[in-house]
Specification:
Elements (H helix, E strand, L loop, with lengths): L4 H18 L1 E7 L6 E4 H11 L1 H26 L8 H8 L2 H17 L3 E5 L1 H23 L2
Helix pairs in contact: 1-3, 1-6, 2-3, 3-4, 3-5, 3-6, 4-6, 5-6
Length: about 150
């Protein structure tokens, strides 16, 4: 099977996801006067690991493992290495990668409600959300194409 644009777009996610994991998701500041700390998915996992190992494993599953596994599985479908009948399962698993985006957005809203804490989203959140949405779109287009 020749390499389709859907395959190349999907494979680009293998490069973009790690960038999104290391990129700043948000910057948290205590009061408007004090400088903040930027948080990425990887730095958040590192911080969680020592305190809440089970939660760190859950976040790693939703933010790292499932999106990457979905991308690899979709590539396998495009290349004919995985049967097209696996696509509904791949699509279902891929929807969980949006859980991380939702949790970060919820964290930003809740923290801003505290008043003395300022949390602002950064480009990494947008990149991660774009990767997750692109993955959903690529799955949908693959299903429509009948790959």
């Amino acid at each position: 099977m020749s390499a389709s644009p859907l395959l190349w777009a999907n494979l680009s996610l293998l490069l973009l996801y790690p960038v999104a994991w290391a990129a700043p998701l948000a910057e948290a500041r205590l009061l408007p006067l004090f400088g903040g700390e930027e948080v990425s998915i990887l730095s958040g996992l590192a911080a969680l690991w020592g305190e809440e190992t089970a939660l760190a494993l859950l976040v790693a599953l939703f933010a790292l493992v499932l999106p990457y596994a979905k991308t690899l599985s979709l590539a396998a479908i495009h290349l004919g290495r995985l049967p097209a009948r696996a696509l509904p399962l791949v699509e279902f698993v891929g929807k969980f990668s949006m859980a991380e985006v939702f949790l970060v957005a919820l964290y930003i809203v809740v923290a801003q409600g505290a008043g003395f804490v300022s949390v602002e989203s950064r480009w990494g959140l947008w990149l991660f959300a774009a990767c997750a949405l692109a993955s959903l779109l690529l799955s949908h287009l693959t299903a429509r194409r009948g790959d």
